[in-house]
């Protein structure tokens, strides 16, 4: 042990340990990739066994250094070059490394094969250990030659290799975990192995590539990958600050936009008379049908809408006035295709209860007290500020009874039924006594009711209305009044990018009918 009393031996030991670790990185990378193909329960065992074989093999090669030196003698002689035993080992090892790295890279990139092999198959434990041993014998040559070239004391070389191997044993698990967490790094590591394999093959033909070039390229590539990982982590941190709902909405919206581009491609191919096979292949790449797109947008934007944009407005409510005559009540029941009616005492804001049409007819025919009967079925009342998502729970508890919407002063603003929510998601379902809110009069020209919900308008015309008053209004009429500053009269034109609105019917209180033309399509 007197060797370690000399400071020069300590310096040699430290330098040799550092070089052994650097030269063993390629071996460590390949071990990490190989053990990843094993089942999780076998990975640590294979890693420890493989590195133990590495340690034994390197120490053994040190003791047979005199034999290794003789590997420089020509064994196969050709006209222009020859192969020594060392050259053949390098050629075999480099070729094997190239083959193995390329096959691993192919398996990594072959998504079609991954799709077929749904059930993951793990590699054989002993085959993996054997591959580690073979590759280690190849990788050990440069480190052994480096050790012999730097230090002429066998004990120092053995200690240096033991320390380097222990370090690799500790670092290998961290490296395996790191590669598993960052799959893209596997591609980078396989590229390094291909580069090292090319270096070994070229060295067997005595075309020497300076090691500094190889390690310089590796360090630069690792630096670039570190920047990519930092960028990826920053993106994940930024995304984590945003609500999951927003992220999912954006992802699905991007799919829908991509779907539209695919449809445009299909139309282009069809117009240019491509073959039926190409047409069909592009046609069926669509992710969503038009109805599905509408419903997806309806679901994702439901929470951001107001109750006013979903409800049936006050002026369209059919209600029963207990002060009316029997004949007037019966006429209203027969003329209106609704099943439920608010029963009121003189005016809509004085709701007694909500009663079914057939029950009202039975009460009237039997001359029962309709006020007493309706008072036993009180209405479900919600504020007009309620979140539409919370509205779903209210409708479930109402058990089929319509819900009355009031403002902060208790004035009835409208009513909501489950059908209104369905229309908010899937589009309009007009009753027998209703006409559609949006009618395309001619190409690019629509006739639209003033009370039409802005969200429905945007969905139907595939536009986004750009104005500061957009979020303050639920209907087209409300938006036009806000933009104009008063109730427009027939003939007035109001421009709201990307549409131009011409008032067709209105009075001093409201806008009934509007002609809409798209002037500029959003991209």
TrEMBL record:
Ranges of residues in domain CBS: 311-370
One GO MF term: flavin adenine dinucleotide binding
UniProt main location, coarse: membrane
Source superkingdom: Bacteria
Coiled-coil residue windows: none
Family matches, as SMART domains: CorC_HlyC
Keyword hit for Transmembrane helix: yes
Membrane topology: Multi-pass membrane protein
Subcellular location: Cell membrane
SUPFAM superfamilies named in the record: CBS-domain pair, FAD-binding/transporter-associated domain-like
Pfam families to which the protein is assigned, alphabetical: CBS (PF00571), CorC_HlyC (PF03471), TerC (PF03741)
Record keywords: CBS domain, Cell membrane, Membrane, Repeat, Transmembrane, Transmembrane helix
GO cellular component: plasma membrane
CDD domains: CBS_pair_CorC_HlyC_assoc
InterPro entries for the chain: CBS_dom (IPR000644), CBS_dom_sf (IPR046342), FAD-bd_PCMH-like_sf (IPR036318), FAD-bd_PCMH_sub2 (IPR016169), Integral_membrane_TerC (IPR005496), Ion_transp-like_CBS (IPR044751), Transptr-assoc_dom (IPR005170)
Family per record: Belongs to the UPF0053 family.
Protein name: UPF0053 inner membrane protein YoaE
Native organism: Buchnera aphidicola
Gene: yoaE
